[in-house]
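Q: Hi! New to this. If I give you a protein sequence and the SMILES for adenosine-5'-diphosphate, can you show me the bound structure?
A: Yes, paste them in.
Q: Okay, here:
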Amino acid sequence: MDKDRSARDRVIVGRLIDALPEAVIVIDAADRVSAVNAPAQALFPAVRPDDLLARGLRAPDVLDAVTRARASGHPERATWLERVPVERYFELSVAVMDGAAFEPMMILTLHDLSEARRVERMRVDFVANASHELRTPLASLLGFVETLQGPAREDAHARIKFLGIMREQAQRMTRLVDDLLSLSRIEQNLHLRPQTPVDMVSILRHIADTLAPMARDNDVVLKVDAPAAVIVGGDRDELLRVVENLVENAIKYGASEQTSADRRVEITLVAQERQCVLSVRDHGPGIAPEHLPRLTERFYRVDAGLSRAKGGTGLGLAIVKHIVARHRGRLGIESTPGAGATFRVTLPLKGR
Ligand SMILES: Nc1ncnc2c1ncn2[C@@H]1O[C@H](COP(=O)(O)OP(=O)(O)O)[C@@H](O)[C@H]1O
Ligand SMILES: [Mg+2]
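A: Thanks. Here is the predicted structure of the protein with adenosine-5'-diphosphate bound:
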């Protein structure tokens, strides 16, 4: 193979792979990199033209696949997992280009499957969590049914007590199923932005009224501070759920805690030029920084026992996050442990 032709081949191949959206690396017969396109360079900055492939891509499974493909002349596949600096999962296919038209070379096509793998893992975790959450009240329900059929059959006092517990467990399952259903409904419509005019102030007042008994029972004072009216484009029922979830959490986990000296929950709405900002602030124990990024994950709770005892499903903030996303808004959470938490929802005003 003469030098000129080999150089020309490299240029052509380089141009060709630059036109492809996939990450592609081309190596020569001596395992040296002859061309890398931009997507591959972005994924593997250490892979450099003219270097040995093994220098830039330290993945034994990949090098094995290359060796196998070279020996057999057939395409090969490999997958590998990188753990540092962040976990990434790749799939690679190696094709052999051999023949009269070209200098012998191998084409490596790489797929970053990290995101697909993360989504798949989330799905598996979600099913496991949901099943677990349902199984616990179901087991307790069955236990009481068996007790009432057997040892406590004639015991009127036990019957009343057990039926009360059974009712609570059944209600807990109903709440969970309701939350799961609304989550899936919101997710299905995530790309459809709701556009009905909704007054956020009337929502705030409505929730403050409906949660007033709960606040009173917990010795919490709700304070609302809002202008006369603030109109956003949205879905009224969904926005009610957002405010309800946040205020309920502030009462349950913030203001009503034994450690909370200041038992106020401040619900504030501020209208700006293009958007409005709703904040729900409590002065309770707050949330440690390591929990903050995970709080909106399904079933994530700082203290699962406390959440269950207060009738929580662990889905409230996941629902809030999805509704806010559907309205093209943002959810922010700030907290200083020991000094309370602020949940802030920013929504575009109607027509913005
Ligand atoms: N205002 C708050 N103060 C302290 N912790 C909170 C607050 N709001 C939410 N959390 C924490 O976030 C978790 C998730 O909330 P959420 O998704 O609404 O689920 P649930 O209320 O059903 O437990 C709660 O279990 C609690 O640990
Ligand atoms: Mg909640």
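A: The chain has eleven helices and twelve strands. Let me know if you'd like me to explain how to read the tokens.
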